[in-house]
Amino acid sequence: MLYDAHLYPNLTMMLCYDPCSFIDAVICVGYTRRSVSSWGYASSLPVYGAWIMHIPDTATRSFSALRLFLTGIAMGIADLIPGVSGGTMAFILGIYEHLLSAIKSFNVQVLRLLGQGRWRAALTSIPWGFLIPLGFGIGAAVISMARVMRYLLENHPVYLFAFFFGLIVASIIAVGAAVRWTPGAAVALVVGTAAAYVIVGLVPLTMPHDPVTLFFSGAVAIMAMILPGISGSFILLILGQYAYVLDAVADLNLLAIVPVALGAVAGLVGFVRLLSWMLRHYHNVMVAVLMGFMVGSLRKIWPWKEVVETMLDRHGEPMPIRERNILPDFAASEFWAALAIAVAGFILLSVIDHLQTGANPLVRLFVRVRQRRQEQDWPVTG
């Protein structure tokens, strides 16, 4: 939250004399400068519970290095979980469109400047202040949390997926409150949900490992990685390239790595521009589609599953490739623990969203109910 004591003297006095009331006032009336989120932002004036959705100016918005670093950590952790996308974390933490804009800065003009020897002009055209802390956060998460995530996946998968399930459900509600629900947006939501639901349930294909197939696999995987709700590694698994690419990376097989990397670069450069164009011209409908991807991805993130089919990974260990969602044992202590973890994730995301936007529907509903109860409990004085 951005707060200027010179602009808001009444709140400044409240902060000095009654900090608790200050916090309540900020939350209750939305007296905040709304941060840019992935779906838009309100004006910088006090909003008193109302806000205006429009396309953010991604070229002028800046984030603190700490926030970007922490967002990178969340994205890195998400990328370590099969079926969870780093794009989902970028979307629900409010940097999604800015990430697309930053990726778009790597364009032909930069290559032209480099070719002309104008290194400084080329480097200054790229938003390093955005990309470096975000990249450090992703790298730090992958390096420091890989073993932790592997341990949780192997020993406590229900609790891990319950936490992410709660996060994503909360983000769906937050995004849904920001969409203008026109018939077109409703259709877009259904299409996005159906597409993600089908994709995450696909069975891996048997495909060749020639350079052309690897190139297109890399392109499709990176496109999926950008979209909220769809994991790039899962797409590689569906295309029958996951184990092969992992072996190639482990063995430094450049004949396999180079086509995948080139495909990823081509897919990233092209798809980001298309997605940015769609968001710029059809913002409301595209946000509804992205929200649908998150809704459909819940099929993959549902904590309770039964393995139907497995395959051997590069270490010769069985790896599930097809699973079926099942109902939990409601009498088991595991269910209640997982439910508590999911609720904790739900509350955590709702609070983070409200701190960023000042307009989370559930937090505002909670505060309104609390206000009414306080008003009923206060004695009426003449």
List the SSEs and their pairings.
Layout: H1 9-17, H2 19-29, H3 65-79, H4 86-92, H5 96-104, H6 108-115, H7 119-124, H8 128-155, H9 157-178, H10 183-199, H11 211-226, H12 232-238, H13 242-251, H14 254-281, H15 283-301, E1 305-312, E2 318-325, H16 333-357, H17 361-377
Helix pairs in contact: 1-2, 3-4, 3-8, 5-14, 8-9, 9-15, 9-16, 10-15, 11-12, 11-14, 14-15
For the CA atoms, what is the radius of gyration? 23 Å
Strand order of the largest sheet: 1-2
Poorly predicted segments:
1-60
Report the structural category.
Answer: mainly alpha
How large is the share of residues in beta strands? under 5%
Quick one: overall form? Answer: globular
Number of strands: 2
What does this structure look like?
By secondary structure, the chain is mainly alpha-helical. It has one domain (65-357). It is 66% helix and 4% strand. It contains 17 helices and two strands. It has helices at 9-17, 19-29, 65-79, 86-92, 96-104, 108-115, 119-124, 128-155, 157-178, 183-199, 211-226, 232-238, 242-251, 254-281, 283-301, 333-357, 361-377, and strands at 305-312, 318-325. Strands 1-2 form a two-stranded antiparallel ribbon. Helix 1 (9-17) crosses helix 2 (19-29). The chain is globular and about 75 Å long. It starts with 8 loop residues before the first helix and ends in a 5-residue tail after the last helix. The relative contact order is 0.13. The model is unreliable at 1-60 (pLDDT under 50).
